[in-house]
Amino acid sequence: MQEIKARVTGEWHDPHNGGTYSLQHEGPLRFDLERVTGNKLFTDKMIFEFVDRANSFPSCEINACSESQIFSIKDFSTNYCNLRNLYCGKGDGCVPVLHDFHSYELDVETSKFAGKDKDACIVEPETERTTPMLRATPQTQDVLLGATVDETLACISDNCPLDEFTLQPKPSCVLGNCTSNLAKCLFSSSCRHGVMCELKCTEPLAKTAEAEHFSSLMECMRVHCPGFPPEKTCAALHCGVEAASCAVHSKCRHALECADKCVPGKYAAALAAMPRETII
Predict the structure, then answer these.
(1) Nearest-5° angle of CA 79, CA 174, CA 121?
(2) Tens-digit pLDDT profile for residues 238-278
C-alpha cells in the first residue's frame, strides 16, 4: 500500500504515456483512484483492495479494477496498465519509489475487446491523440477524411442513434451493425483518436438538460441526411429547426463546434444550418 500511494501522490513518472494519478479516497485496506491521460483528454477510475496475509506467501493480495469513463470499444490495454504500473517492480521494467517487490498475477479478467498486454504498459507519451483526422493537409479543416474513417462514421451515424442523455451510440448497436468498419478504424490511429476526441467534446453536455437539443439535431441528420459527410443543403432543408434550437443553447453549440475540429466534415452541415445571427 505504501508503494502504490507513493507513486500516486509523489513525483513518480507514469511510464504509460505520462498519465497523472490522484487519490480520491483512502480506507484501511482500499484506495479509490483516478488517472488522467497525458494529453488531459480522458479519465479512468480505479479501485484497489488489499488483503493482509501476514506470515504467509504472498504476504499481500491485491484485488483491483479500472474503468474508462467514456464509451470505449477497445482500450489497447490502458485499464490493465493503469493497475499494473502501480505495483510492478524493477524486474518488470518499472521504477519503484519506496519498495521494490516481486508480484505475480493470479487472474486477469477484461471486458470484451479490452487488452492485457504487459508490453503496452511502458511506452513514450503519444503526440497524436489530439490531431484532427484529416486526409492530407492539417491546415484545411474542410479536407474530407480517408475512406476508412468515412465508412466507419457513416455506418455508425446511419445505424445507431445517440442516446438522449449520454450522447453516445449504444455499444451493442455499433458492434451489431459496424463490426468490420470498426475493426478497420481501431487499427488506424488517426481514426481511433479522432473518435475519442469527438466523445470528449460531448462529455460535458451528456446528462444535462441541453443534451436533448444535441441528440435531436444528430437524429435529424441521421434520418434525413445519411452518409458521410452529410450535405449542407440537406441539413438546411430538413434540420433547420433542430439546428436553431442547438444554436441558442451555448453548451450544445460549443459541443458541436468542438467535435467539428476533431472530425472535420461530420458536423459542418449541422453548423451551417444554424441561423447566423445566433452563432456567437
Answers:
(1) 15
(2) 999 999 998 898 888 888 888 888 877 788 888 898 886 54
At residue 49, the 3 state secondary structure works out as strand
Mean pLDDT over 171-186 rounds to 76
What's the grid cell of residue 279? 452563432
Helix runs in the chain, H state only: 2-9, 78-84, 147-159, 171-186, 189-202, 211-224, 232-238, 240-247, 250-262, 268-272
Burial of 215 (0-12, 13-18, 19+ CB in 10 A): buried
Longest dimension (CA), the chain: 75
Query: Which one-letter DSSP state was computed for residue 133?
Result: -
- Measured CA to CA, the distance from residue 14 to residue 46 in angstroms comes to 15
For 70-119, what is each residue's pLDDT tens digit?
766 667 788 999 999 999 999 888 999 998 888 888 889 888 778 888 88
Residue written as cell 448497436?
A: 173
Between CA 203 and CA 214, with CA 209 as vertex, the angle to 5 degrees is: 60
Question: Can you state the angle between helices 211-224 and 250-262, rounded to 10 degrees?
Answer: 50
Helices 189-202 and 250-262 cross at an angle (nearest 10°) of 170
CA end-to-end span of the chain: 51
Q: At what angle do helices 189-202 and 147-159 cross, to 10 degrees?
A: 40
